[in-house]
Amino acid sequence: MQQNSRRDLIWNYGSILIMALGGLLFSTIILFFYDTETLGIFNRAYSYYIVLSQISVCGVHMSVLKRVSDSKYDDNESRSLLATSLAVVVIFSLAVIILGEGVVFFFPTTEQRRMSLMCIIPALLFFSVNKVLLNYINARVRMVAYAIFQGLRNILICVGIIVLAVIHIDGPKLTLAFAIGELILLIATLIYLQMQHELGGKISRNFARDLIEFGIKILPSNIVLELNTKVDILCLGWFCSDEALIGVYSFVTLFTEGFYQVYMVIRRNVNPFLSEWSRDLSKWKQEKTKWTKYCLITAIPLVGLLIGAYYAYIMILGKTEFTAGIIPLIIISISIAFNGIFIIYGNSMSQLGHPGKESIANTITVAFNFTLNIILIILFSVTGAAIATALSYCCFSIFVYRFTHKVQEGRI
């Protein structure tokens, strides 16, 4: 591995550590100032927010990653792609915000849940723009900057939660922290890009058409991909009225999502080069073999470290009721480790020009996950949710395996 690649990975793993700590601090601060029920409401709103964010960005961020990766040596074209994508995503996100606030206002639910959702939805505008900006930085292979801004997001949201908690804001309104954090991150990212002379490109109708066309094709994939990570919490919310139990399970998912990010860091570093490697099958095989060995060697130590960290953390907090989350943690973390190589190559279909295939794969996966969650939650509660989530990773891996195997054989 080249020195720059090592440096990029180190910075991105540092970013993941900050993101993981940020996620834990979200919950720790909420539990310190409020209670488990408030944590459950907060994480339920966050689950809907993540899914809505994919609709508001409409796949444009993935279009940027693909197109700018292909034209990263043409500065003028890259700047024009960025300007065009920002114009498109602002329009989409504003439409989703207006529609989303209207639906939530009239939707029959508890006042606390309604308030939490209405406070988080405005953050979609800043989040969507940031998604485009960060994927642009990723495509330009400025991974140190990418790592810094990715880590900064959770730090800023965490600070927002602290400020809101200190001024004794009502628990459901804590989700305002997302808008606060994303807005500050947006300002910082724009300043960086201006210093790098990346802003000021011309908006192109042709680029807009291409970005939207690609984005719409990849949109189902992105929606169901994000939905797949939140299906368990959403289904628990539908079939379980105990907000405290949902709070315990959502606390577990902070650790599993942090673990998932270990492989996502590599994915982000690999994505810009997938198209290039696919044109040289020996390079493709070499890289895939390298990352497969990495996944196999690190799987058991990482799972053990994750479980130990979770147990130690809940003991430090004195939250013995969270020991109920250890079994779900073990189930999900083992599945993530087992499927690590396929998580790394999870964007190979879209990056090699087959966004429709990736959308189909993710749609089938989330349908599989939904079905299993409904059945297994009714039978086994939170343990059933964990089993369903674990099996969904295996389902998607089958699609990635088949696609990458065809690439390796020169059939794609």
Topology of this structure?
Blueprint: H1 3-33, H2 36-57, H3 60-70, H4 75-106, H5 111-120, H6 123-139, H7 143-166, H8 176-195, H9 205-239, H10 243-270, H11 274-278, H12 281-317, H13 326-338, H14 340-344, H15 348-351, H16 355-408
Helix pairs in contact: 1-7, 1-10, 2-4, 2-5, 2-6, 2-9, 2-10, 3-4, 3-6, 3-9, 4-6, 4-9, 6-7, 6-8, 7-8, 9-10, 9-16, 10-12, 10-13, 12-13, 13-16
- Global outline: globular
Number of helices: 16
Order of helices and strands: HHHHHHHHHHHHHHHH
Q: Termini distance? A: 26 Å
Q: What's the domain count?
A: 1
Return residue spans where pLDDT drops below 50 for at least 5 consecutive residues: none
Described by strand count, sense and barrel closure, the largest sheet is: none
- The radius of gyration computed from the alpha-carbon positions, rounded to a whole number of angstroms, is 21 Å
Q: How many strands in all?
A: 0
**Proportion of beta-strand residues:** under 5%
The structure class reads mainly alpha
Looking at how many chains there are and whether they match, the oligomeric state comes to single chain
pLDDT averaged residue by residue: 86
Write up what this structure looks like.
With 412 residues, the protein is mainly alpha-helical. The model has no long low-confidence stretch (mean pLDDT 86). The protein has one domain (3-408). It contains 16 helices and no strands. α2 runs antiparallel to α9, α3 runs parallel beside α6 (123-139) and α9 packs antiparallel against α10.
